[in-house]
Design goal:
11 helices, alpha+beta, Outer membrane efflux proteins (OEP), four-stranded antiparallel β-sheet, elongated
Length: 449
């Protein structure tokens, strides 16, 4: 065979190879575009720490744009997106070599071999990898929301500690005032049992001072937690600590919360993506019965005239039981994935009920303190002040009553903190905790939250 014939044969093989390519699907193009766009957002993020008076949303935005957990989850997702193209590609061609040697080199036959997997099989494998990339995307979304949740809970802890320190400082002032009055009564002999009152107040002052010291340590821990939640390491400079305040968050109805949970919960979204991946794996298993081919050509450059040896192989998927078992196993994995979605919905319903109970319990406690306890303490203080002016009571009862009112305000702050922590978990369930205005989640319908 002439060299021109060899070239013609090789050209035919290359043309056959080019005709067997599988173009990227719309879902693959979409995943690639979204990963590129979000990667540009992440890698271009270089913002300063928000000012102390900045709202919580600014701190959430800062954290999710720079936290290493978010970057790691994004890189994992990007890796699965980039792995789709190799999955649908043909195997690499192989250079072969064959020679016959006796006393001398008898034949010298280099060649080129191509493995062919049918386009339908490679398309099914690409669809499976595309579905796997959606699982990774859902994991990335869950990571973004978990980082935002960590920042919000750390913010709430800072707000509570600052409020507790303020209230305990006021309590120290009131107790010192009461102790001074009790001491004056004891010196002047105006009261009965004022030594006992002095000792009791000294004990109360010592107790509150101990609480203040513990709260100071707690603030150090809360600030460290907040700094870590922002994605700042111990070697980074401390951020400007926010002027956090505790305030109740309005919630929609229970039915609306459940609707949002079903539509946007990150864990449910990940499990649904796993169902799609399991369905795609069934399609891969069903294509296992399609034969694969190998085509090649070898040329003996020692022969005269030039000798060409075409080669071809084909797989024989004759073990039908093996194929049926693989398909049945893939279908069983699909059924398991579907069942896990149903089980997760049951768990979500129970969690939603538990969190709403915690919110309502805190609301009842706050309402009780606001509408009953604090107004009663206010009336009691007014009554004691009137009695003191009339000479019927001692002045020390006024600051002591104020201390009791301050303690109830601290109880209210703790109840509000517990409420907002439960609200934070609800916002995570419904995927409503992501910072507004941060384009870190895909916008297209097929990749929505």
């Amino acid at each position: 065979m002439k060299p021109s014939s060899v070239a013609l044969l090789l050209s035919g093989l290359l043309l056959l190879v080019s005709g067997c390519t599988v173009p990227p699907s719309g879902a693959e193009k979409q995943a690639r575009n979204e990963s590129t766009r979000l990667g540009q957002v992440l890698h271009a993020a270089d913002q300063a720490v928000p000012a102390p008076q900045a709202p919580l949303a600014d701190y959430l935005r800062f954290a999710v744009l720079r936290h290493p957990q978010v970057r790691a989850a994004y890189s994992d997702w990007q890796a699965t997106v980039l792995a789709i193209a190799p999955t649908r590609a043909l195997p690499d061609p192989q250079l072969t070599f064959e020679a016959d040697v006796a006393d001398t080199l008898m034949t010298f036959m280099p060649g080129l071999m191509f493995d062919f997997m049918t386009p339908g099989k490679r398309r099914a494998m690409a669809n499976e990898m595309t579905a796997a990339s959606q699982v990774s995307y859902r994991t990335y979304v869950a990571t973004v929301l978990e980082v935002a949740t960590g920042v919000r809970k750390a913010w709430l802890e800072l707000a509570y500690v600052d409020e507790a320190l303020r209230l305990r400082d006021e309590a120290i002032g009131a107790l010192n005032q009461a102790a001074a009055m009790a001491g004056a009564d004891y010196v002047t002999g105006r009261g009965m049992g004022t030594l006992e009152a002095q000792l009791r107040l000294e004990n109360e002052v010592a107790k509150v001072r101990s609480e203040l010291a513990a709260l100071g340590d707690r603030r150090i821990a809360a600030r460290t937690r907040f700094k870590s939640a922002l994605g700042l390491t111990t070697s980074d400079a401390d951020p400007t600590w926010p002027q956090a305040t505790l305030a109740p968050t309005m919630l929609p109805s229970e039915d609306e919360l459940w609707r949002r949970t079903l539509a946007a919960n990150p864990d449910l979204g990940r499990m649904r993506a796993m169902v799609e991946m399991a369905i795609a794996s069934v399609a891969v298993a069903r294509n296992a019965g399609t034969p694969d081919f190998t085509l090649g050509v070898m040329a003996d450059f020692k022969a005269d005239p030039l000798m060409i040896r075409p080669t071809a192989t084909v797989t024989l998927p004759i073990w039908r039981e093996k194929i049926r078992s693989n398909i049945a196993a893939a279908e069983a994995r699909r059924d398991a994935a579907v069942a896990r979605v149903g089980a997760e919905q049951l768990n979500m319903a129970a969690q939603l009920a538990q969190m709403l109970y915690m919110v309502r319990e805190s609301d009842r406690m706050i309402e009780y303190i606001d509408t009953t306890v604090l107004p009663n303490y206010g009336r009691l203080i007014s009554s004691i002040e009137a009695g003191y002016q009339a000479g019927m009571t001692g002045p020390g009862m006024i600051p002591e009553t104020r201390v009791m009112a301050l303690s109830m305000r601290l109880e209210r702050a703790a109840a509000l903190r517990d409420r907002e922590n439960a609200v934070t978990d609800l916002l995570l369930m419904t995927a409503d905790i992501a910072p507004a205005g941060t384009p870190l989640l895909a916008e297209s319908p097929n990749s929505s939250r």
